[in-house]
Design brief:
The complex is a heterodimer of chains A (about 130) and B (about 170). Chain A has about 130 residues and is mainly α. Chain A is built from four helices and no strands. With about 170 residues, chain B is mainly alpha-helical. The chains are: A mainly alpha (about 130), B mainly alpha (about 170).
Chain lengths: ~130, ~170
């Protein structure tokens, strides 16, 4: 059991190193700074999509949604400070996104607690009451 | 050589993006859910540093206050209230599902990167930054964006009351 645990953590470290190397290789080939920030946003968005589709714990799904919103915010702020630096519309949009994300997190916590009280589980596979 | 040159030109971007991506991968790949929550804090702090490096100090400070403290606190509360120490049992087709998700997300990354590296011209002002950043945001929020600002306050109130109503214990059924 412990050997299996060691192997799985080693595999995760290798996957992380490989993905960071892939990201750095792509970032170095880009010419402008704006494109590099958009690349960071794209990487966070892809990781969030992976967490959203692959994970079974519903709280991890909530964390992945926060990652997606963060990626969108990086995109907005990067465009606002490189393309529109005089009246910074993108930063105001990022503030609105943050406020909506806070409301969404509170509602999601309440829904998770209500479901957990009924089913005593946080597994996405058990949440099938909306299936038809 | 090329890597070293671009690293020296803009070291803050590379350091912050490596920290942010490691934190995000920790959120997704880590088995222990509490450790995943704490790597979310690392990721959000690196993103706040990215905002500071993009000449957006007000958005960066809000990121630290709202995301790195507030939302993470909510998630840690969710972790503590739903007490799940034991691992979930492995399902039959789970590895196939994970591989399919990895293919989808890497495909999204490659498609966006191809769109980024094409022959596109951004309207880029280099070296110009808004000197009174926070003042401009405040004037705009209470000027031309005053209606969405007030709507956001109503939305937050509705979300608070709705969260209390949903999470409250139903006394009749107990």
């Amino acid at each position: 059991m412990s050997k299996q645990l060691f192997l799985s953590s080693l595999a995760r470290i290798f996957v992380t190193a490989f993905l960071i190397a892939f990201f750095l290789f792509t970032a170095v080939n880009l010419s402008s700074t704006l494109e590099r920030y958009i690349l960071l946003s794209t990487a966070l968005f892809s990781i969030g999509i992976y967490g959203l589709t692959a994970s079974r714990n519903v709280i991890r799904v909530l964390m992945s949604i926060e990652l997606l919103l963060n990626a969108v915010n990086i995109n907005l702020v990067a465009f606002s400070s490189f393309v529109d630096p005089i009246d910074i519309k993108g930063q105001i949009f990022a503030m609105f996104v943050m406020a909506v994300a806070a409301a969404e997190a509170a509602i999601a916590l309440a829904i998770i607690l209500a479901i957990y009280r009924n089913l005593s589980s946080v597994d996405m596979e058990d949440f099938s009451s909306l299936k038809w | 050589m090329e890597i070293l040159k671009s690293f020296i030109n803009n070291p803050g971007y590379f350091i912050l993006s490596i920290i942010a991506i490691s934190g995000a991968l920790g959120v997704v790949l880590e088995k222990n859910i509490v450790r995943a929550g704490f790597s979310l804090v690392i990721c959000f702090s690196a993103v706040a540093g990215t905002y500071f490096s993009l000449n957006a100090p007000f958005v960066g400070a809000s990121q630290v206050l709202i995301y790195a403290v507030g939302i993470t606190l909510i998630i840690v509360f969710a972790l503590m209230l739903t007490n799940i120490k034991n691992d979930m049992p492995k399902l039959k087709g789970e590895i196939g599902k994970n591989i399919l998700s990895a293919i989808i997300s890497i495909g999204i990354f490659i498609v966006f990167t191809k769109a980024l590296t094409g022959n596109n011209k951004w309207f880029e002002f280099d070296g110009i930054s808004c000197p009174r950043n926070t003042e401009v945001i405040g004037l705009k929020l209470l000027g031309s964006y005053v209606l969405p600002f007030e709507l956001i306050s109503v939305l937050l109130l509705v979300a608070l009351i709705g969260a209390v109503v949903i999470a409250k214990k139903d006394k009749k059924n107990v």
